[in-house]
Design a protein that fits this description.
Order of helices and strands: HEHEHEEHEHEE
Strand content: 25-35%
Number of helices: 5
Number of strands: 7
Radius of gyration: 15 Å
Largest sheet: 7 strands, mixed
Helix content: 25-40%
Shape: globular
Structural class: alpha/beta
């Protein structure tokens, strides 16, 4: 399902937001010339350093959880986040969309897996700990931050219908 979203993507410089222990990074590394691994948890970044043995193509960034201040403007050709943004508060999602716009090069794309849960704002009681977000609200935030929505697909997750959404964005 993800591969069709990434067709035609520019893998010269890929940013993996909320990389965790590098599950997606391992797959992206096979395609990327450069890879920026970003996570709020320094222990995840330390784990990735050990896992990838300081591969010279990889930059490791422990961030604040809402900005990408250590990533240069217009340097990223593919902004990627899978299985993490579904848990982000809507304010954090909006902040990251603004940062994505800043760090993405003109023509770059963003592939983002986010929540489509609108059944309440208490993520602790939501299915699979999803935060409040919708396909439409995400698209609205993306456009307000100067990004073009190319495609969105709502999908089931963990047996819950229409719980998540995959969005493909572009910086013009």
């Amino acid at each position: 399902m993800i591969e069709r979203f990434l067709e035609g993507a520019d893998f010269r410089c890929v940013l993996d937001l909320a990389t965790g222990r590098g599950r997606n990074a391992a797959k992206l590394l096979a395609l990327a010339e450069r890879l920026i691994l970003v996570d709020i948890r320094p222990e995840n970044i330390a784990f990735c350093r050990r896992r990838f043995r300081d591969d010279p193509r990889i930059t490791f960034v422990a961030n604040t959880g809402y900005d990408l201040r250590d990533v240069p403007d217009a340097s990223v050709t593919l902004f990627y986040s899978f299985d993490a943004m579904v848990h982000f508060d809507s304010d954090v999602v909006r902040a990251y969309l603004a940062e994505a716009r800043r760090v993405m090069a003109p023509g770059a794309r963003a592939f983002l897996h986010h929540s489509n849960h609108t059944g309440g704002e208490d993520w602790l009681h939501a299915p699979h700990c999803r935060n409040f977000m919708s396909q439409a609200l995400f698209a609205h935030y993306a456009r307000k931050e100067g990004l073009t929505v190319l495609q969105q697909v709502v999908m089931d997750w963990g047996g819950v219908p229409a719980l998540d959404c995959l969005s493909l964005l572009r910086r013009d």
